[in-house]
Amino acid sequence: MNILLTNDDGIDAVGIRTLYDRLSPIADVMAVAPANDQSAVGRQLSQTVDLYEHELGYAVEGTPGDCVIAALGSLDFEPDLVVSGTNQGANLGAYVLGRSGTVSAAVEAAFFNVPAIAASVYFPAGQFDFDEFTPEPAHFGEAARAVEFLVEHASNVGVFETADYLNVNAPLPPATGHAKMEITRPSHVYKMDADHDGNGTVRLNDRIWELMAEGSIPDPVGSDRRAVIEGRVSVSPLTAPHTTTDHEALVGLAEAY
Questions:
Q1: Domains present along the chain, CATH in parentheses
Q2: Torsion over CA of 235, 237, 243 and 246, rounded to 10 degrees?
Q3: Where is the Survival protein SurE-like phosphatase/nucleotidase domain (predicted)?
Q4: What residue numbers does the annotated binding site for a divalent metal cation cover?
Q5: Which residues, including other chains, have CB under 8 Å from residue 89's CB and lie 6 or more apart?
Q6: Which segments are annotated as binding site?
Q7: pTM (global) more than 0.90
Q8: Which band of pLDDT confidence, cut at 50, 70 and 90, is reported for residue 164?
Q9: Running DSSP on this structure, what letter comes out for residue 156?
């Protein structure tokens, strides 16, 4: 199997190196990833990008979307699968999918008709000072194990006949054994708000992280965030946006127009 590996944390991030080392024994892996951190850029694209050789493959002065398009469109490498990650931080909830560079790389691959897996690790809110924190390969162990399992088995049982990509979120490795895996759907709980300081500055707040730190999440059973908070690997099978559906009322409006 040929695997194109990318991410949004940058090609020198610990998470992508951990996946590269984990997948290399079972596949021909080539990394084409941003030269620096491109977190939360969504599907942002550039018109031109600089690409140069790296020990893992190629570094790109651009976004995760740039990396996927550059690799699939210009390089002599035809992957059977695109893997994006492993991201340092969870990508949970429907509202996050379009913001995440990690997930957006998987979406971009889907438009090329190449199946993809986006992988992220949940670092419990309140337990880590992210301004001072440097992750280690062990933090990504459960996610790497889950991705390896899916790489080896998902295509063989027809998973990608109905799903364009899988959004995988893993907890930190448990003290013993490994986490269970749950098939989930993205949570639709949304807790964004904003504060105006009266001087022209508005602070945007994602209150979900506060609730996660408290351990009081409102997400229903079967949702991605609940699974991860409770210590399971969440796997959400998704299709590339944007799916259209028949809408009788809208047809009526068009006829009236």
A1: 2-187+218-256 (3.40.1210.10)
A2: -110
A3: 3-188
A4: 8-9, 39, 87
A5: 39, 120, 121, 122, 123
A6: 8-9, 39, 87
A7: yes
A8: very high
A9: G
